[in-house]
Design a protein that fits this description.
- With 137 residues, this protein is mostly helical.
- It has one domain.
- The chain is 72% helix and 0% strand.
- It contains nine helices and no strands.
- α2 runs antiparallel to α4.
- The longest helix has 21 residues.
- The two termini are 33 Å apart.
Length: 137
């Protein structure tokens, strides 16, 4: 098992899997079948327009594909970071959707909360692609 793990390029796996997730989520928005449409519309009311919602999906597809290209990966990761701050804005724009009256997270609340780990992944990509290191010795 250890030899298999040692041979696995975890960074490449991270990039490919992250790209697939972004592409799939974008395709769902383009088809207007996204299960988070109500959440998006509640926090960004202008997104109730089908064309804008589809455009949002196309942008996600482009971001997902862009991550696959090493030369531009860091820039696409920065764009994803901006996109994720938009999704986190739901906490301030529509908190009633994210929590029950007892402050227990709803399914939508859990969906938004998972963006914290996605932000961490994006920061890791940015750090790796731009060669910065937080470990100074």
């Amino acid at each position: 098992m250890k030899s298999i793990i040692n041979k696995l390029d975890t960074y490449k796996f991270l990039i490919i899997s992250f790209s697939i997730i972004y592409i799939v989520f974008g395709v769902l928005k383009v088809s207007t079948e996204s299960p988070i449409r109500n959440l998006v519309e509640a926090s960004l009311s202008f997104m109730s327009n089908d064309s804008l919602f589809r455009l949002f999906g196309i942008i996600e597809i482009i971001l997902g594909i862009g991550l696959l290209f090493k030369k531009f990966r860091g820039y696409f990761a920065l764009a994803i970071l901006l996109h994720l701050f938009g999704t986190i804005s739901t906490v301030f724009l529509a908190p009633q959707i994210l929590f029950t009256s007892q402050l227990t997270p709803t399914l939508e609340g859990e969906f938004v909360a998972k963006n914290i780990i996605i932000i961490a992944v994006v920061l890791l990509i940015i750090q790796k692609e731009f060669g910065t290191s937080s470990n100074t010795k």
